[in-house]
């Protein structure tokens, strides 16, 4: 069969790499892909020069080739309605339709759904204008808060504030200076939760829910969870934070009520339901939902997955996930370290030649997934803020971390940097 992966980041490289390992798959096309998918060892993987939100061209390509299964990576493609367009043409595609994608595309929609589904989350208020948001903050105690732009902002529209002054400044950034553009037409102000974050991803066809091992992302830019929020500076799986008991609680109190509430709202959900969780002293709380494989969580999950990904995604797309075989996971942990461009998550330059990729690939049990890269005159160069996701397996989390950072040390370009503490939370006493 032929598979099309839509997107060009680290998540899509990991998905294409895993899908290409299936005995059922003859060809994997990646649109638009990156230098990593272009140079992937598997001859079955090929880039296609079509943007991930160019739905008419993607649709035409899928019909011409013909594609048996399309797997959508980025949230922007889902929000643009790619699933609706493919489904209308009778093409099999894995991912939620435009209506269901609102769960990620609108923070306001998500928070209201959590409230109606009685899913535990932080107390919140929503606003459309500067004056009412300021008035609300002026009347509140001077406590830590989180201010979120409503729409999609590439993982950067969440501003964690220590006090009222910072919250007012965040509101002004979103509404007054329009830092996040149309994403800031509405905003959410919520209580800041204290605890550790975890990510639980599940595959669902709207009836059956297949939960994957928990992961832990690292959103802040710098070591010790300092600095501005990013799209994610690294992740590892599994995390000891999510015990078997807690995972059952996530399924019962978070995933099942959410799927049922979406069904009641006539927005049935098919695809990846990604719950961003905070484990607090008061219990489990949902920070937000994403509606696709996380990036970088996808990379360690794909490293650990031993069974055929195609079987499960195809069954979910067809609405028969209850018939899919169980997913089999490598018991070894995996750690992914994101290497980024100087200046990220702010302004950065592109086009820097990347050295040492061959040496990194030779590190045992390590894999370099490309995110913001492209080929220029036969040379791999930087083409984004998050450039590489260096991922490794190990007999323990500490050994997986050692292997990942051993591969990181092989790689150089002008301005390359990364966090040095990915997975350390798992090792803390």
From TrEMBL:
Kindly list the cofactors needed: Mg(2+); Mn(2+)
The EC number(s) this enzyme carries = 6.3.4.13
Check the record and name the Gene3D superfamilies matching this protein.
3.40.50.20, ATP-grasp fold, A domain (3.30.1490.20), ATP-grasp fold, B domain (3.30.470.20), Phosphoribosylglycinamide synthetase, C-terminal domain (3.90.600.10)
Q: A single Gene Ontology molecular function, please?
A: ATP binding
Which InterPro entries does the UniProt entry name for this protein? ATP-grasp, ATP_grasp_subdomain_1, PreATP-grasp_dom_sf, PRibGlycinamid_synth_ATP-grasp, PRibGlycinamide_synth, PRibGlycinamide_synth_C-dom, PRibGlycinamide_synth_C_sf, PRibGlycinamide_synth_CS
Catalyzed reactions per annotation: 5-phospho-beta-D-ribosylamine + glycine + ATP = N(1)-(5-phospho-beta-D-ribosyl)glycinamide + ADP + phosphate + H(+)
- PROSITE patterns attached to this UniProt entry: ATP_GRASP, GARS
Where is the ATP-grasp domain positioned along the sequence?
A: 111-318
Supply the alphabetized keyword list.
ATP-binding, Ligase, Manganese, Metal-binding, Nucleotide-binding, Purine biosynthesis
Q: Please, which domain of life does this record's source organism belong to?
A: Bacteria
* Pathway where it operates: Purine metabolism; IMP biosynthesis via de novo pathway; N(1)-(5-phospho-D-ribosyl)glycinamide from 5-phospho-alpha-D-ribose 1-diphosphate: step 2/2
GO BP, sorted A to Z: 'de novo' IMP biosynthetic process; purine nucleobase biosynthetic process
- SMART domains the UniProt entry points to: GARS_A, GARS_C
A Pfam family assignment: GARS_C
- NCBIfam families with a match to the protein in the record: purD
Name the family: Belongs to the GARS family.
> What's the protein here called?
Phosphoribosylamine--glycine ligase
Q: Which organism is it from?
A: Bythopirellula goksoeyrii
Question: Which gene name belongs to this protein?
Answer: purD
């Amino acid at each position: 069969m032929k598979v099309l992966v839509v997107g060009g980041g680290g998540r899509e490289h990991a998905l294409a790499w895993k899908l290409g390992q299936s005995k059922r798959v003859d060809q994997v096309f990646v649109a638009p892909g990156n230098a990593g998918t272009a140079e992937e060892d598997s001859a079955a993987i090929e880039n296609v020069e079509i943007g991930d939100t160019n739905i008419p061209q993607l649709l035409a390509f899928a019909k011409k080739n013909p594609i048996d299964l399309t797997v959508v990576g980025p949230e922007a493609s889902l929000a643009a309605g790619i699933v609706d367009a493919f489904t209308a043409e009778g093409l099999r595609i894995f991912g939620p339709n435009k209506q269901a994608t609102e769960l990620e595309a609108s923070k306001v929609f998500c928070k209201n759904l959590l409230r109606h589904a009685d899913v535990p989350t932080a107390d919140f208020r929503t606003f459309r204008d500067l004056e009412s948001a300021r008035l609300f903050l002026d009347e509140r105690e001077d406590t830590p808060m989180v201010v979120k732009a409503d729409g999609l902002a590439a993982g950067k529209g969440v501003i964690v504030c220590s006090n009222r002054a910072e919250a007012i400044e965040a509101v002004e950034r979103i509404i007054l200076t329009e830092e996040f553009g149309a994403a800031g037409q509405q905003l959410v102000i919520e209580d800041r939760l204290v605890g550790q974050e975890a990510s639980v991803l599940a595959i669902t066809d709207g009836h059956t829910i297949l939960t994957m091992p928990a992961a832990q992302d690292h959103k802040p830019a710098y070591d010790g969870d300092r600095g501005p929020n990013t799209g994610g500076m690294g992740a590892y799986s599994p995390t000891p934070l999510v015990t078997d008991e807690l995972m059952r609680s996530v399924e019962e109190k978070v995933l099942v009520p959410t799927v049922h509430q979406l069904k009641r709202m006539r927005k049935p959900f098919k695809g990846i339901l990604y719950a961003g969780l905070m484990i607090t002293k008061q219990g489990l709380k949902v920070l937000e939902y994403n509606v696709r494989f996380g990036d970088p969580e996808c990379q360690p999950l794909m490293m650990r997955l031993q069974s055929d990904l195609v079987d499960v995604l195809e069954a979910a797309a067809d609405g028969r996930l209850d018939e899919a075989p169980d997913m089999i996971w490598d018991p070894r942990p995996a750690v992914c370290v994101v290497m980024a461009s100087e200046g990220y998550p702010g302004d950065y330059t592109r086009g820097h030649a990347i050295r040492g990729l061959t040496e990194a690939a030779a590190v045992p049990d390590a894999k370099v997934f490309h995110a913001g890269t492209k080929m220029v005159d036969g040379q791999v160069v930087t083409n984004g803020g998050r450039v590489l996701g260096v991922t490794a397996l190990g007999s323990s989390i500490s050994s997986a971390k050692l292997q990942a950072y051993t591969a990181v040390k092989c790689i150089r370009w002008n301005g390359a940097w990364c966090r040095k503490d990915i997975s350390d939370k798992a090792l803390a006493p």
